[in-house]
Amino acid sequence: MNIVDVLLPTIVFTVCSLLTVPLLRLVRKTKLDPQHFMVAWITFTFSAAAFSVFRLAKEYFGQSQSVLQISSTDTILAPLSTVFLVDTVSVYMVIAYMVVGSISCLYGVLHTNPNEYLSERYYALLLIVTGTVIAATFSGDLLTLFIFWEATAAGSCFLVVYRKSRESLEAALKYLVMVIIASGFIIYGLSLVYGLTGSLNFWTVKEVLLTTGNTHLLLVAFAFIIAGYAIETAIVPFHMWLPDAYTAAPASASAFLSALVDQGSYYILLRVLLFILTPPAIVDWRLTIAIFSALTMIVGNLFALAQQNVKRMISYVCIADIGYNLIAITSLTSIGLQGNLFFFFVAAMETSLAFMVIGVFNKMGLENFEDLSGMGRKMPLTSFAFVCAALSFSGVPLFAGFIAKYMVFTSVLQSGVAWLALVGVSNSVLQTAYFLRVIHYLYAKAPKDDVDIKEPKKLLVPIYLLVIINIILGIFPALALDLLSTASTALIL
Amino acid sequence: MQTLLIALMLPALAIPVVYGVGKKSAKIAALFLALISLVSLSLLLTLIPTVLNEGQYIESYYWIPTLGSAFTLFVDGISLSLAIVTLILVAAATVYSINYMEEKSSLPEYYALMSLLTIGLVGVFITSNLLLFYFCWELMLVPTYFIIGGWGYRESYNTAFKFFIFTHAGAIFVLLGIGAIYMLTGTLDIFEAQAILATVDPSILNWVLISFTAGFAVKMAIVPLHMWLPDAHGEAPAPMSALLSGVIIGAGGYAVLRIALGTVYSAMMPTGNEFLLVLSFFGVLSAFYGSFLALAETDIKRIIAYSSISHMGYVLFALSLFPVAEGITGGVLHLVNHAASKGLLFLTAGAVMHQTGVRDIREMGGLASKMPLTAIASAIAAFSIGGIPPFACFISEFHIFVGAVTAAGADGSYYLPTVLMLIATVFSLAYVLRYFWKVFLEAPKLKTEVKPIKTEDKDKQKTKNNDPPIFMVISMLALAAFVVILGIYPGLFIDLIHAVTSMG
Known about the structure:
The complex is a heterodimer. Chain A is mainly α.
């Protein structure tokens, strides 16, 4: 396996993304329906990428090593050599991105009109961001990770600003400033690490941390790196940008961002925290992260409770989800890690499902709870999809969200931090409460006027794809968990 | 043979059919669903000989090995008898719905939700895997929420919301307990877990036990966790009330016995007797509280709802006699009898409301002559609930008190709750007699007007028989016959249950 194999999905996405702009402009001049063309194009891109991921996975599972290091130079330890790592965790994450990414890109094409001026750039950005997220997931040294992640963040900013309204400009600016601050932190930490260890490779840095007696300065450097990634992950108190960004972005962009970029950033945090700063040997960050996790859950859920705008509420739910993920990280158990990785996939599905449904509502001009009154009868299919998302968020069985939450709570009990389990559980009840409130508006209130609303049938296709995947994974979680049972051994070194 | 799997999955396979057919004719959909539940029921009945001879019957399928879970379906005497009564009640409630719900809208959804609910109701009783149990446990909750909300009375969604939050919060505590069991034993099968738990430090098990019991007690509506019950039972449509009061809260009692006591507590015996004594006092408290409020209440359905709280108190008291065989037999038998009788009582109350449009019992009276068949069914149900021999609940209450006296003989501290419980039965009888008198026997009030039956036939109208339409009558009478059989021939269920309890 060489470096091209690993980068092939990213290359596919980049090339296709670059081709999107001229091709779509060409198609507009012909008689072809641009929307049909874009659906075909997205399908083609994702199938090509899926094929390359499949090749990679086949090669990885065909050999016996649990972690593959692939370097651009002959010796892995050459300074600043670009290293990629392929293990069960990264392969799993990429598969998850591919599944949710393809559906949310499809939704993006159906939701925004391809005849619109400059919409080709939006689609190109969707594809290229997918590519960079995948590359970041495979990266095996801190610099490669940083480069691809910044590319992702930059792309995301432009997705947010697509509508060019006042709010979206403000939100994108806020996001951009946060990203720049975060990258400042990260690059400062990286320079310290490089100066102290002479490498940015995950394994080398870890080796130095384990063998050197005095690691104080290195840990300070990592504090910067973690803080940087915490900003991009939107851990409370660094979360302010997220609700603005996701509310102002077009619904399809929010669905895409919450599925890929959000989950990708947790994944990176998990990599750095577990892979390099492995507790308790190097530094015991468990209590600190546990406190942040409790804080994130509480703040996310309380603010979600206070919202009137549905989209903003879901944005806060995204924050609360980060809290649940962090719970699992702190447990350091095999079930916690599996739960965490499963949660990434499930949260990606849930949040993008919720944003997609809200996108449909928004298209009808419905934004607040009041507007949703009585929509359960007028838009039965859309409302039902929202109910599925809400029940999955609340952790009700038959939906994958339950298995994810169950594993997270069990893992934290297993590690003996009962107070965190209690905080998590009470938050879960709170979450159920505000989701029921939306369901209440949908079904219990009478609609405000008698205008007939037609559900956009096309948009329901990607939405119901997600609902079905969610339910299948909820009833047969073994489909994903069997893959993950080897993953936990790969992560705990 | 995959008897149990088929019995459990039939309602799931029926959902698309029910929904599709329901679009054309809700009546056929309902009859189809009733038929499905009767098929499931007969599948379960074929297992009776196996269970009587071998004690239990197990099927196991591949599910989630990483979480220590196989898809294990299991019945022994206790779970089989509860599953049987559940399916009978489901069939009766579905047939009853044909007429009761016919003026409501979106019936296809209603029957689809009913079949989804059936999986949960049956599944809770026939699995020995905790994760699968929890699946079914929540599956009882979600369709109920939508049924109460969508087709209930008055502020139905607010009531449904209260119901959902209360029981979901309870369920989360159950989930914590399940997580703790997995953490301690690495398996989620209750029998394997019990063996391993015996080696675990009892001080941890105490917390697991409390977490489970608190979670189940919410569903069981034990005072002070009962607040959701009167509203939910009162506002739900009558068939749903029957299932709620008959099966869903009974499932709470079953879970306390099977999981909290049978799995966790039996692993930590003989420590923790105080815990059982506390349970018995909560049982007594619920029994009194429920009876007093039922005596004071004037809303026809809320009376029955409060009576459910009182009867769950009886069950909890019986379970607190663990492991005295007569007590547990009585408790489980009471779950069976109470399910049938209370289900019937709710159906008759629904029939009264359907025909008169009134729910305040002060405005009723004299209905016995106008609705004779309803009155007969109601009398059977009410006398059973009141514990009058030879009706069903008398037998189980008798068992409970035999058990209580045995337990008191061994441990003197049980005398006080036993005596208090005996006093509570007097109040139970009192509210039942008041209810029956006010609704059916007392001189009619002017306000009450009974809906004439919808028929062109003038002669029939003259007879002044205002019993509800045919399907409601059929389901009520069938269920009434079942209650009578339970009362005069309780042998089968006692044999089934006693086979388990006598083994300890």
